């Protein structure tokens, strides 16, 4: 069972009572002046928390006149608890020892008493070390408790930041997957439905494919908003697994709905992460060709030299007008991030003949 901690006022009152009792027991000079000095020193203990140095100095005259120790010890302890100036604490301990060893009245000092005065000085100096050490110990304990609280708060803040970073990475991963996989498939459905709508002769069939294309366009628009929101709240991220690699590249090219030629190859030491980046670059480039360059032909070229590897996707100009399809405008940004994570570069821009070229390179 823990006892309740007394209030500061109760402790201060108890200190004053003990100091007065100490004065009464060791009273040697009962002159009015000496009594007034001692009473002032004892009552000043009530202010030792606010003015520890001034209260300690107030007890020095009483220590010289009377053989008291509690009042100066209490004020010295409070000063040591609140002050970080160790030189000041040492000087106060010496001052207390000097005041305690000095005989009163001063003219009563004989040759024999001088020797005992010196001995008594060092004895009181050693005694004064106790309140100083206790006060410093209490101060260190309080600082340690405060530091532990700060460390715990910092750890809690670090855990919060870590959880936020994990959440942000997951959001970016989700956004990237939605854009690279889901948008890719839905945009292919929309393009194919648009082509069927143009070529269809049966009104009912044309209305059906028109509805499919309309739903696909609406889905792409919703995906655009979702991808934008997810990327806005996230950061750079690692890849999700499982993801396609170079072995799936031929199937991607064959199912793109575009006349595409795949040439070249990459060395075997290309990492799985780099293979995914190459795959996503080709996927995004072919998706953009379908959206913005209908009827164009594309060439996917894999290349490498002694220190770098990469992929270049080039398409010819469009042969017919493109259908208005919504986009998230995040594909090329994501490809640039993938290349940057590999320590490489990414460029995209129009060619001299009116086509478009996407190029990603990275060190082996």
Task: Describe the protein's architecture and organization.
The protein has a five-stranded mixed beta sheet with strand order 1-2-3-5-4. By secondary structure, the chain is of the alpha+beta class. Helix 3 runs parallel beside helix 5 (86-101). Helices cover 63% and strands 9% of the residues. The protein is rod-shaped, with a radius of gyration of 43 Å. It has ten helices and five strands, in the order ααααααααβαββαββ. It folds into two domains: 8-151, no CATH class; 165-363, Heat Shock Protein 90.
How would you write the strand order of the largest sheet?
1-2-3-5-4
Task: Compute the separation of the termini in Å.
Answer: 69 Å
Output the radius of gyration.
Answer: 43 Å
Q: Could you name the CATH homologous superfamily of the largest domain?
A: Histidine kinase-like ATPase, C-terminal domain
Structurally, the number of domains stands at 2
In CATH terms, what is the fold-level topology of the largest domain? Heat Shock Protein 90
Topology pattern, helix = H, strand = E: HHHHHHHHEHEEHEE
Average pLDDT: 79
CATH architecture of the largest domain: 2-Layer Sandwich
**How many helical elements?**
10
Largest sheet: 5 strands, mixed
Percent helix among the residues?
55-70%
Number of DSSP E strands:
5
Low-confidence segments, ≥5 residues, pLDDT <50? 235-242
Beta percentage is 5-15%
Salient structural properties:
364 residues; alpha+beta; Heat Shock Protein 90; 2 domains; five-stranded mixed sheet; 10 helices; 5 strands; rod-shaped
